[in-house]
Design a protein that fits this description.
By secondary structure, the chain is α+β, with helices and mostly antiparallel strands. It is about 30% helix and about 25% strand. The protein contains eight helices and seven strands. A hairpin with a 5-residue loop joins strand 2 (about 20-25) and strand 3. The structure holds zinc ion. Zinc ion binds next to strand 7 and helix 5.
Amino acid sequence: MMAQLNSAQAAAVGQGGFPLILTLDMHGVPHRWITWQHACYYYAKERIAWSLGGTVFTIYGGISRLSGRRSEISAASIIAIRGKAMAIRSFNNVPPLNNRELFHRDRHLCAYCGGVFSTTRLTRDHITPFSRGGRDAWMNVVTACRACNERKSDRSPEQAGMELLYAPYVPNRAEYLILTNRRILADQMEFLAQHVPAQSRLRHAM
Ligand SMILES: [Zn+2]
């Protein structure tokens, strides 16, 4: 199979291949990113309930022996998938904690000195250290530069006399999806932005 974009989207795709397609559950709750191959599977199985977004990809398949025509599927950039499992999984789902998304959540800003650093100079700081029963979870971690992390060492911010410049929070689904995809199409971003809570730090970047 091969995929083709119309000229308007070709610019949005850039060099790195095909953009990901955003799936929603039947209620319009953002679910996850899928590849265009995966989207074709949903289209072929007639699992698409409805679609959104101004971007449409046309994907060409093989030539049918019966009709002599080349098969094609037009996939939208945002698609709602039928199925109960989708709805259950996407609600109240705490996204997995990864450094990449954590640093992105915190805008690459060290929570202690306020400096902005590149990924390689940042660390995951446990506000309440592991050794004192702190959990490895969104609410107990912030982004810290190496120097601040070493200075804080195995202590709480109070014990170390270091003040947190911002509070940790759990990103919701929409925010997590924004954090995990670097090449979000404009219509996908517009949709996800509506689901990002007002207190999110991402709001300042949108
Ligand atoms: Zn620092």
